Amino acid sequence: MYNRNEIKEQLRKAMEFYSELGFEYLPVRNISTAGGHPPHGKETAGGHAGKDRGEELGSLRAATGECRRCRLSEGRRNIVFGEGSPEAGLMFIGEGPGRDEDIQGRPFVGDAGKLLTKLIAKMGMKREEVYIANIIKCRPPLNRNPREDEIAACLPFVEKQIEIINPRVIVCLGKVSAHALLGTDIPISRLRGNFLQYRGIPVMPTFHPAYLLRNPKDKWLTWDDMQKVLEKMKGG
Ligand code: URA
User: Fold this and answer.
1) What is the pLDDT of residue 35?
2) Which of 36, 41, 48, 50 is most buried (most C-beta within 10 Å)?
3) Of 197, 161, 200, nearest to 178 (Cα)?
């Protein structure tokens, strides 16, 4: 139970966040206490009891608007917000959109995306059952690495997506994702294969699918990492 001051502080933080995202009101709706478990059997997050995750993601997308918070907005065609099940137990977080994603407005739809989709299928899931997002939502020119200020401008969005979805496990695809989310600069080759934590959620860093396309001999390492993810999702 929160005391009065804690509630005030939580509300202040929520209002600050939404106003930063351009909201002029707090997107709350009637909180239902009706039972039922989400389809993937995941417990409802404490902060989101009774709220509809899909609606919350919709509000967040709406708040993103035609974002101009960093220079990447100048060259992008589409904001690539993320897609998948709002009830997902597993969330994949990549780096940022490439050319195909920028054109289609969807994450991981190019060659690296096709490999990711195959990996998800090999894990026994459908792409629509997981949630796929990126650290940055707009394509950098010529696919260069995102800069620190661009990551800082975009990070609150993926953080909010994680908070809403509250997955059981997060997979960080590649070093940009792992470094941004986990606040480390340890090379991905050393980070991968071991669980770390993001706000209490287990995070498995692994190689980016684009790296695996260039280095197929390392695919088995990512497959190994995904075995651990599947174990963790079963409660292991
Ligand atoms: N690479 C990424 O990191 N994200 C995408 O959406 C596509 C390619």
Assistant:
1) 32
2) 48
3) 197
